[in-house]
Design a protein that fits this description.
Oligomer: single chain
Structural class: alpha/beta
Radius of gyration: 25 Å
Order of helices and strands: HEEEHEEE
Distance between the termini: 56 Å
Strand content: 25-35%
Number of strands: 6
Strand order of the largest sheet: 1-6-5-4-3-2
Amino acid sequence: MKLSKIKEILPSLENVEFQLENGTFVPEHFHVTEVGQITKNFIDCGGVIRSEKVVNFQLWNADDFEHRLKPGKLLNIIKLSEEKLGIEDSEIEVEYQAETIGKYDLEFNGKHFVLVNKTTACLAQDACGIPSEKQKKNLSELASNSGNSCQPGGGCC
């Protein structure tokens, strides 16, 4: 989800709620402790130099159980970040700590924001020797070679 999309959604909500893909909700007393833009400059295993930008939200649980972040407050934090930091309209990445700090993509299911698990991938598969996926065929589709085939009852199996 891009930053422009969350800014479009927030005014229509009564509460800001985040849910993990497994159905667990981020406790409602969470804080958004950071909104920023992260630029990652890197080289992939194929030698290609790449650059990536994301808008980063960091969620944190405190012991102030009465805290509730309202949509207007989050919208104000976003606007302030855009003004002061020059944040661009990029994809949002959310940091949230469970066992360790996890990074998530963000989606909206019509009621809640959903923290979508991110995965790693090789960006240069053609350059680093990753074999392409094997073509799958049913055994019944393979042409039989009568000279080398084993027939039921033939004693070769």
